[in-house]
Amino acid sequence: MPKHPSSGKYAIVGLGVVAGAQPDRSERMIAAEAARLAIEDAGLTRKDITGAVDLRRSGGGGDRASYSDAFTRVLGLNNNYYYINGRGGALAGLGMATAMSFIDRGISDYVCLMGAVTDWSQAQESKKKGYRGMAHSEKRGYWGKFVGDSVAVSHHSWMAARHMAVYGTTSEQLGAIAVSQRQWANLNPEAKMYGRPMTIEDHQNSPLLAEPYHILDMSLVSDGAVAFILTTAERAKDLKSKAVYVLGQGFGEVSSTVWWDKKNFTHMAVEPAKKQAFGQAGIELKDIDCAQFYDCFTAEVLFQIEDYGFCKKGEGGAFVAAGNMAPGGTIPINTSGGLLSCYHLGDLTGLAESVRQVRGQAGQRQIKDCEIVMTTGHGGELVSPGMCSIHTCTILGSQP
Amino acid sequence: MSQSNVITITTEWKKPRPSIDHDNAEFWAGLKEHKFLVWKCKTCGTSYWPKAYCQNHDNEPFASNMDWVEAKGTGKIYAFNIHHTAFNPGFKEELPYYYALIELDEGPLVSSTLIGDRRPKNIYDIGQKVEVVYEDHPNEGFTIPKFRIID
Predict the structure, then answer these.
(1) What is the pLDDT of residues A68-102, one digit of tens each?
(2) CATH code of the domain containing A72
(3) Once rounded to an integer, what is the mean pLDDT over residues A342-355?
(4) Option in B17, B81, B87 nearest A211 (CB)
């Protein structure tokens, strides 16, 4: 398949990660620190950065990174523009698509994209008032809170429930996703759950929060920040770090069709995103060496495995239970541990892992001869009665 | 209907209040009159909930080809979950509660909690016929729709 002219024209040349609980630090400081690390990793200086994007979760997740100052000012970047981009957990994919336009028109040579959260620290505060989870990020104005709608937990557990009822998927099979990712996390010292192995029995015995979901079906609440530097493939040649090329990007929205025919509860808007991203990159599914799927809950991984075609629709449960996504499996998925076992920074968790895998910097969990990696993102405003809108797909590779 | 489909509750409301705005004020007014309204296209007859432009053809400005009309107030369980944890402390006394997606006979999905004696056996047990039960809160000035299994 011929590649699109844009494929391989841009590259990620620097990565900065601040992981782990940050109870004594502000968002703006961990944001600035991640950006500083990314610039240093690229072998650049602050004056080289002429554009900046703040990847914040608007929509369903709320403006949870609504701190007062821009990380660009705190760090002292030389940016001509700074804007906020992102939708739910779909951050890196959208940010890159817009940043490439600034680079393409010669407005910026190097753009710094950064996302930071202190969800874990904020959740500790709301816990004192009797709330659990992400109360600090909830938005007003949608249906259901008056009957106990608990936002993402309620809506995503419906998706798991509907998939179970339609296709016969079991809780143990969803548990296999959590266990597979925990196996990956145990190969990643940066993961929150490193050194804490988990079995299907542990999953089954963990508290049921919103049945069918156990607490171990749910993603982590985290602090942290990820920043990365985007530039042209041409400029990337002269830099010290190994360039990671952007081969393709695709986007889909369930609000276009899936919502109205109710497939939202068993499918993601993968079809258009896959067609665009894989088409631009000129690749097929078999070319993917590992996938970083957005995994706010276990069933979301299951939907994507099926919707991308790693197995037939409805057969994802058996596929994951056979160990296909775990270390040693046929398609390594969420190799950092993902949102379930590493940390939750939206799709930036997957993006950081993709960059490391392509660079060969993933330590014990490194995929052999890793050349092409896909990263997905999800999120959006909560349209009644429960909907996750966007699906983004970004293909990165070791060669332009 | 064998049972009353209206419940009146006068105790103090300690939960989040409904968010009533320009788009759903008529719907909430309908509930107070014990009517479950859906947003229906006058051109092709397709029903929506919540408010939207008709997806099947071109629309008049501000979707004036649509109107709120009374639905039957019946449907089927499409999927549900069982909340064993109160993320908001106002729901602690109700645990565990069954929060269901209801596929109305007119087509749209709506969500609310299941009340009454009957509950699904497990997560796989869906498709039961349900009817709306109007939970009046006269001191608060709103009525909340809940659903009860009837088949």
Answers:
(1) 678 888 898 989 999 988 888 899 999 999 999 99
(2) 3.40.47.10
(3) 97
(4) B81
Most A CBs within 10 Å: which of B81, B121, B133, as the mutation test of the A interface?
A: B81
Question: Under an 8 A CB cutoff, do B88 and A162 touch?
Answer: no
pLDDT in tens, A163-215: 999 999 999 999 999 999 999 999 999 999 999 999 999 999 999 999 999 99
Confidence (pLDDT) at A260: 67
- Let me know: does B136 contact B77? Beta carbons within 8 Å: no
Reference A15, options A282, A283, A393, A345; nearest CA is A345
Nearest CA in chain B to A257: B55
B96 to chain A: which residues are within 8 Å by CB? Answer: 211
User: A34: number of CA atoms within 13 Å, CB side?
Assistant: 33
**ipTM of predicted complex:** 0.92
- Whose CA is closest to A75, among A222, A225, A241? A225
Position A262 pLDDT exceeds 50: yes
Q: Is A169 within a domain?
A: no
How many separate domains does chain A show?
A: 1
Give the domain range for residue A86: 10-122+223-232
Q: How confident is the model at residue A61 (pLDDT cuts 50, 70, 90)?
A: very low
Please count the residue pairs, one from chain A and one from chain B, whose beta carbons lie less than 8 angstroms apart: 118
A66 assigned to some structural domain: yes
> CA-to-CA distance for A375 and A175, rounded, in angstroms?
22
- At A130 the pLDDT is 78
B141 belongs to a structural domain: yes
Do the chains contact at B81 and A140, CB–CB below 8 Å? no
Token pair listed for A213: 């979901």
How many structural domains compose chain B?
Answer: 1
Query: Average pLDDT, whole number, for chain A?
Result: 91
> For residues A251 and A392, is the Cβ–Cβ distance under 8 A?
yes
Express as a percent the part of chain A with pLDDT over 70: 91
Q: Where in the sequence is the domain holding B142, given as residue range(s)?
A: 18-149
* B63-78 pLDDT, tens digit each: 999 999 999 999 999 9
- Nearest-by-Cβ selection for A131 from B55, B87, B99: B87
Cβ-based contacts of B113 with chain A (< 8 Å):
147-148
> Mutual orientation of helices A348-359 and A92-104 as an angle, nearest 10°?
70
A290 within a domain of the structure (yes/no): no
Residue A266 near residue A162 (C-beta atoms within 8 A): yes
Residue in B19, B80, B82 nearest the CB of A141:
B19
